[in-house]
Give the backbone structure.
Amino acid sequence: MLDLITCVLPVDRRTEIDKTLKTLRASDVISKIILVGDPKFMTDGYDIIRIASDNFFSTKTIREFAAKITTRFTLICTKTLSFDLGQNALSRMMQVSLNTSAGMVYSDFFEQKNGIVMPHPVIEVQEGSLRDDFDFGSLLLYSTDALLAAVISMDEPFELAGLYDLRLKVSQKHKLVHLPEFLYTELELDIRKSGEKLFDYVDPQNRFKQEEMENACTNHLKAVGAWLPPRFREIIFSENDFEIEASVIIPVRNRSKTISDAIKSVLSQDTEFDFNLIIVDNHSTDGTTELIRSFADTDERVIHLIPDRKDLGIGGCWNEAVNHSVCGKFAIQLDSDDLYIDSKVLQAIVDTFYEQNCAMVIGTYQMVNFNLEAIPPGLIDHREWTPENGRNNALRINGLGAPRAFYTPVIRDIQVPNVSYGEDYSLGLSISRYFQIGRIYNPLYLCRRWDENSDSSLDIEKVNAHNYYKDKIRTIELWARQKMIRENE
């Protein structure tokens, strides 16, 4: 094998093939170019191999192009749009691969969006970076030996999860190395805000794809000794005495525009049991404190807490509430800018704890605007969850759903990370390691999407920080499950 590269490119009507080929040939390290797609959009050339395929991401296609590769490295471009290579970009990626014995190298890049070129840094891949939408950029340089070994082990024929399966299998034997250098420029056509991309994985139109991704991830977890069978600890709810059956918990800071609606939606609940509302007012300065006090002065069910500490995130506020003496047997979430859909929500949640013998219940919510009018993507029900494999697939998806409710002794034992993003996901992963998570697929909750949401429109640095933290949570949970399985064996 020569220290040269075979480049694999998907081709469709959007591909500016002549421009792309000129860019690749100018690098002086491309030996062969494999074009994959509809032949009518391809060109001929001494260095070109053509593969007719209507699905670049299938296992079948990957096997086909892998059989054509004879160079030491393989560059896979995951997008059909054209790109520009930076100075010595591919040579630099090869150099790093050789120096680190990496199975795959990826880099930061520049992104051209709406005619503007901006830096697009990506994050370090971790063992827990199991999201199938992890942002590697569009150019992935594989060691061909690592790629071919992984292809040989790809024993499940996926239609859409082939490249995801390939990446996971390479990672089982080799390092995936992030090079924090901006080595190329790619065109970006998805100009939606960050908050509008969050729910792509729960879109019913993507259901078949998600099932394949789940299967690929499940196979990977089994291979690395982190897969958990559907065996759960039983909960005896009568073992703990609580004066109150349920507490709704609202952490809040500066939500004077919405907090009254949230409080009213709780106090209007019709239940067969006693409940209270614990509002942890995290030192609001916009009039929120006075609004809460007006409710607490007239209704003894409203418990208004102002923490002594001033370093609390949302998770820290939850700890203040669930460890308070007035907290009920079940702690039920409500965000300060959202509200329950009707008066039967608390009763439905508590009933589910007993019916499904679970330590956590997750419901379904309807996306609405500030005026409570339905907006896309509509109902978020997380039907990808299954009782048999949900806790394994939870390591792949980026959230578990809402509203969330917890059996208080369990959440007191685990405690909530003192952060304001991902704290609920971390808690859900920890709980699912031991206990069943119950689901309600009827809508319980109106989730407002508006400009003051914490994730409505984030810059790339903030998106990366959020994703890195969740990947770290997944990595820690992956290690914890591997440790538990080893000890059980």
The chain has two domains: 5-191, 237-488. The first helix runs from residue 17 to 25.
